Amino acid sequence: MTVTTVANTAYPLRTLWPQDRIESETYDDNPFLAFVPKAEDFVGENMYIALRYTDVQGRSATFATAQANKAPHKGVRFLLTRGHDYALFGIDHETILAGKSNKGALIKTLDTEVSSALNALTNSLAAVLYGDGSGARGTVVADPGTGTTIQLENIGDIVNFQVGMNIVVAATRTGALRAGGARTISAVDRDSGLITVSAAVDAAILSTGARDFIFAEGDARNTGAAILPTGLLGWLPATAPAVGGGDSHFGVDRSPDPVALAGLRCDESALNPEEGLATMLSRLDREGGRPSHIFRNPINYKDILLALGTKVETEYMAVGEIGFEAIKVHGPKGLVRIFSDRNCPQNTGFTLTMKSWKFHSLEKAPMVIEADDQKLLRDAAADSFEGRMAYYGQLACTAPAWNVNEVLPS
Q1: CA nearest to 82, candidates 396, 392, 402, 399
Q2: Rounded CA separation 225/311 (Å)
Q3: What structural domains does the chain harbor?
Q4: pLDDT (tens digit per residue) in 378-405
Q5: Which stretches does DSSP call E strand in 245-378?
Q6: Which of 88, 94, 363, 396 sits between 20 and 30 A of 36, alpha carbons compared?
Q7: Can you give the pTM of this predicted structure?
């Protein structure tokens, strides 16, 4: 276990953060996390989200036929369970004492550790809300070769990796981890999507010819049960659930009506940005959606800006004390705002009817763990203390058909 010491830090710190500051820092630079409605109501063991996807079928212009064809409406219940995530930090007693006064502290070191832990947990949550619940942070290019470097298939996924992170890989999103154990990232090239790791990568880690999935150690859903919350890619999968395909999303087989139960999919890869937006919004209008928010990776957001040119209209949208610049576009049912979000996968977009989404959590998300009124815990076998942060929650959608997973031009 590594803890912060006087020897490895140049700036001791001071006080733990109040909850309102945690909320402000959490939403900064994470638009979807900021805008998605939230409810601190996920108490008990689980939660049902009910959805009616057909109406009664006793309808006909002929009374006898309507009577003969009477059939009840159809609905489903998604049985939500909480995902969870943690961020911990350690600091030794000497460092705390050295930073107790303004004279001894250039920057408040405890504050810095809390800030860093909160940032790690926030970045994880913001990325998870775009994911499919597997915990996968990226994929490796086919035929990666050997050595200590890993080339990401999608350069945009580099935002999910940092120096010092331990990573593991698997052949599938939910499959067993490959043999060989974790590797520690020693360098990250954010321009090329290249990751350097602590020990040689070979067939024991990456399967030649396969696009292995990369996970932060401890996140992978390789035991079957999801650990992290399920995000947009889980509720709006890129491939429609097929009949007999074994789909089970929170206990529901969505194949009887993939749009009503698993959202729309729109391939805009062969269209320019304006044509893609018009095509997608018209399809969503057909399904009764009233989209309010569109989220794009910064690269794809730039493509829209360039395509609109002098026609671009922008608006500043505030959430509490922070805000985001949005591009305004006119859809069949009114204005829709487009936001740049670094957590959105590159070349994938999401157009959402935001009122159909909610993140349900058990109290604050994230929070400082202090159920015993102790913000710092004394290490039993060392002259140091441990701080803990966590969140427990799940993303829910009450009307998947009002939302779109888009394939954008690469």
Answers
A1: 392
A2: 48
A3: 19-131+365-395 (3.30.2400), 136-229+245-360+397-407 (no CATH)
A4: 888 888 888 888 999 999 999 999 999 9
A5: 264-267, 293-296, 314-319, 322-331, 334-340, 348-352, 357-361, 367-368, 376-378
A6: 88
A7: 0.88
